[in-house]
Design brief:
4% strand, two-stranded antiparallel ribbon, 19 helices, mainly alpha
Length: 509
């Protein structure tokens, strides 16, 4: 395939787009490598929080490894909430049990083993992203399209949108990887083997959902595509398979599982500002894909010839369907307070898929739409390279979280000498390997909000236990608590003269 040129003879084709992309992806790889270097250790277990409420996941995985259910009544001790789907906890728990047996690891290695398994998930997502994009450019005769496909696959797996999600302990990563595997099955077999394509995708779709119940964006995109194609039989087949699978899961699971999965009674809060912030973060951290998809959509809307050309390509139609569903639903879901740009992982994939499909479909000319699309993608690569360069040089962003580890390690050593049972008003320090020999009160993310709403906690929650003198000792951040905590007076306790690091210790009188 020949390359595009402007009227002045300036060349701008897949080769140039891929070259700029590889330079940018190299910077992304350097940034990801630094984060791995600083935050993964095989010499000692590192303790830090890399994403919001990661502690709840670690505690639930530990419970599974101990043979317990991750799902509990959040209004009963230990007042925790496992809010993700069953396969996530099952797989991560089993992985730790296997690693523990193989390498003789104690519980303090739960975070490290789980982070390494997350990293494997990103490798799988990158591999299958490339396999999908390679199918899109299979009919082109240019090797630079395949290089560009590899660049986008690497950006999906290790780019700045991923950030510390590369090693965070959450279900999003493997759910996303399973969605991409299922999408590859669908693209590979549809429309030649339609029932096999839909059935194969449905199997991976269910597995992705069983990791995280909101992992329905890729399935929604394929469902919309089938409706656009008026392939009613396959649309009904997909819907029927998922309804049966989901229905059986809810029927066979217990009440605690259903309440957790559906966030029954949980006081969620939503703000448009948070959703827009996440949308802009996605646009900036996945700039080449977003720019390419945006230019292509504008070309389709403004140019009848382009519209006629690209609509004949089923990859473009599928990409448009997936992008519409993933962006729309991600924007709505990420308005929840505390939500981050991880909701846009699927949108990032579809923007790359649509960009590659558009470039392969429009071909190459002397100027016009193909040149405009290539220029948009290059502009996105350049913007991203500047942002990643700023992160590498320390102007913005964080590369090293081990300052948390040093702090937690020192506090743990100090708390080891404090009487039990102990309550620590710091969720990570409440994990069973941080303060052993005491009931781990890894409080639900919504605990404080539900206490304000006067929800009926067993024994009046932590406050009731303090009021009754249940704990032998209490630990609060220095100066944060003086007379009362969680509605209870501290009159049965007296504060030690010397703090434990930056924790005040209160002992039962």
């Amino acid at each position: 395939m020949e390359r595009s040129k402007t009227a002045k003879g300036f060349e701008l084709g897949p080769r140039q787009v891929a070259f700029v992309g590889l330079v940018t992806v190299s910077l992304c790889a350097a940034l990801a490598s630094l984060r791995l270097y600083y935050n993964i250790s095989f010499a000692e277990p590192l303790h830090y929080v890399s994403s919001g409420d990661e502690q709840s996941s670690l505690f639930a995985i530990w419970r599974v490894a101990e043979g317990l259910s991750p799902y509990t009544d959040r209004f009963a001790p230990p007042f925790t909430l496992a809010s993700y789907n069953w396969l996530y906890y099952k797989v991560y728990g089993d992985v730790f049990v296997a690693a523990s047996a193989l390498f003789s690891l104690d519980d303090s290695w739960v975070p490290t083993v789980s982070r390494l398994f997350t990293l494997l998930g990103w490798a799988v997502s990158g591999l299958f992203s490339y396999l999908v994009l390679a199918l899109v450019v299979a009919q082109t005769d240019g090797r630079w399209f395949r290089v560009l496909a590899a660049g986008f696959a690497l950006l999906i797996a290790i780019g700045p949108l991923v950030g510390f999600w590369l090693i965070t302990v959450r279900p999003d990563i493997w759910a996303f990887a399973l969605e991409i595997i299922g999408f590859w099955v669908f693209v590979k077999w549809y429309p030649e083997k339609r029932p096999l394509a839909v059935g194969g995708f449905a199997a991976f779709f269910y597995a992705a959902w069983a990791f995280k119940q909101t992992a329905v964006l890729v399935g929604g995109g394929i469902g919309l595509y089938l409706l656009v194609r008026r392939d009613w039989r396959m649309a009904f087949l997909l819907a029927g398979l998922m309804i049966v699978a989901w229905g059986l899961t809810f029927l066979l699971a217990g009440a605690d599982y259903r309440d957790a999965l559906l966030f029954s009674g949980v006081p969620l809060e939503y703000t448009v500002t948070n959703g827009l912030r996440n949308l802009f973060h996605w646009a900036g951290k996945f700039a080449p894909g977003v720019a390419g998809a945006a230019v292509l959509v504008l070309l389709i809307a403004a140019n009848a010839e382009v519209r006629q050309t690209v609509i004949e390509n089923q990859h473009v139609v599928l990409g448009l369907s997936g992008l519409a569903v993933s962006v729309g639903l991600a924007l709505l879901a990420s308005t929840q307070t505390g939500a981050a740009e991880n909701y846009f992982f699927q949108a990032a994939f579809f923007s790359a898929y649509l960009t590659i499909a558009g470039m392969a479909t429009l071909g190459v000319g002397q100027s016009g739409p193909s040149f405009q699309l290539a220029a948009g993608v290059i502009a996105g690569w350049l913007v991203l390279s500047i942002a990643v360069g700023a992160a590498l040089t320390g102007v913005v962003g964080i590369k090293d979280l081990t300052g948390q580890h040093r702090s937690y390690k020192a506090l743990k050593a100090c708390l080891d000498d404090v009487p039990r049972p102990l309550f620590v008003n710091e969720v990570y320090l409440s994990l069973p390997w941080m303060t052993p020999r005491s009931e781990p009160y890894v409080l639900s993310f919504f605990y404080e909000r539900e206490r304000v709403l006067d929800q009926p906690f067993d024994g009046d929650g932590i406050g009731g236990r303090i009021r009754n003198g249940h704990f032998a000792a209490l630990a609060f951040w220095q100066g944060s608590v003086t007379e009362r905590f969680d509605g209870a007076s501290l009159k049965k306790y007296e504060k030690k003269p010397l703090p434990c690091g930056n924790l005040d210790i209160w002992l039962r009188k």
